[in-house]
Write a structure and sequence with these properties.
Blueprint lengths: L30 E7 L8 E4 L4 E15 L2 E6 L3 E4 L5 E5 L5 E8 L10 H12 L6 E4 L6 H17 L4 H21 L10 H20 L6 H7 L4 H12 L3 H19 L6 H7 L5 H12 L3 H8 L3 H11 L5 H11 L6
Antiparallel strand pairs: 1-7, 2-6, 3-4, 3-5, 3-6, 3-7, 5-8
Helix pairs in contact: 2-3, 4-6, 5-6, 7-9, 7-12, 11-12
Length: about 350
């Protein structure tokens, strides 16, 4: 068991685009170790976020559901997960199971001179720009995975003990792990296709648009306004949204407004009219608001107000019972932004 100080801040603070605002480790030692117990997290969830650091996770007990980008899988004790830079991810309970896991979050500058272009091109970009390595699951009973898992466990143990020279020992272990990953990549056949530049471009554009909608959803918005946030045409805006989120920008905006209204109803039980909520969330017609609310929530606003009963835990259950799984990014962003303490 890792002896993590009780004062360790396990909350996740994010910008509107879900980028995590937190320094992991220090400038001299950019690595942080976290021991996470789902019972101690808000609603037992780790919400959607992304960061510039790599993250290695070792599940130490129970079962949890991990979501990375559009992938969804369940991990149990002993399993490990590797998450690349700048990749959206979250953790949630699986069938009400409890879960504990250790997380190693580190910046590659801890063992690589990332300012050196030769070092970057030879040892960093083969991993960070490999679209097939957005994440990787390691299983203790899978051939070849045990060696990786043992190194990760050694990193955890080294940083738990913090004996003299543990920083150098950690860097050596990270280098050993990194070399194994690189060798695994380099042994694969060289792809004949070009890198997926389109995906990278789409991600950047969509992040800008999500930030814009989060700040302006209560205002009258046109497709031209939304596309302008990413400096692209209306048609390209629709295409990249479809490619990345499988939804149109306008439908995303409507859902964002409806889910915002749902949370507003929960937090203002009986203190605000539905017409005022409609206006505050960007709807200029109460009848259209009621129609869209029932379409996306499955309940009328008044039914929802009764069922939610002012509890964010209830709202999450009600919404996740009715919405499509792809809408979880919208829902969890909103619950994070509008919860009383904002950290996730």
């Amino acid at each position: 068991m890792l002896m993590i100080p009780e004062s360790q801040d396990l909350n996740i603070y994010v910008r509107d685009d879900l980028y995590e605002i937190k320094q992991h480790g220090t400038a001299d030692y950019p690595l942080a170790l976290y021991h996470v117990d789902s019972q101690n997290m808000y609603l037992e969830l780790v919400y959607w976020h992304w960061h510039e650091e790599f993250e290695y996770i070792i599940v130490t007990g129970g079962t949890a559901r991990f979501l990375v980008d559009d992938q969804d899988f369940v991990l149990t004790a002993g399993d490990c997960l590797l998450i690349n830079q700048n990749i959206l991810h979250r953790v949630k309970p699986y069938n009400d199971c409890e879960c504990t896991y250790c997380s190693i979050v580190f910046h590659p500058s801890i063992f690589l001179d990332v300012t050196n272009p030769v070092v970057r091109s030879k040892y960093l970009t083969p991993i960070t720009e490999n679209r097939d390595l957005r994440y990787y699951v390691l299983k203790p009973d899978s051939p070849g995975d045990e060696a990786y898992i043992q190194i990760l466990k050694a990193i955890l143990y080294t940083n738990e003990q913090c004996l003299f020279g543990y920083e150098l020992a950690t860097k050596a272990l990270l280098c050993e792990f990194w070399i194994k990953v690189l060798q695994n990549i380099l042994l694969r056949p060289i792809p004949t296709t070009q890198p997926d530049v389109q995906t990278i471009t789409d991600e950047d554009r969509v992040k800008r648009i999500l930030t814009y909608i989060s700040s302006h959803y209560m205002e009258p918005l046109s497709l031209e306004d939304i596309a302008g946030a990413a400096h692209i045409s209306k048609s390209e805006c629709c295409r990249c949204f479809k490619r990345r989120l499988h939804i149109t920008p306008f439908e995303y905006l409507i859902k964002y407004r409806i889910y915002s209204a749902a949370i507003m109803i929960t937090q203002n039980t009986g203190r605000i009219s539905f017409s005022d909520i409609a206006e505050k969330t960007g709807f200029n017609s109460s009848s259209y608001f009621n129609k869209m609310f029932r379409k996306y929530i499955g309940l009328t606003p008044s039914q929802f107000r009764k069922d939610a009963a002012g509890d964010l835990h209830n709202i999450q259950k009600i919404l996740e019972d009715h919405i499509h799984s792809s809408d979880n990014v919208i829902l969890n962003t909103l619950i994070a932004e509008k919860s009383p303490e904002h950290p996730l």
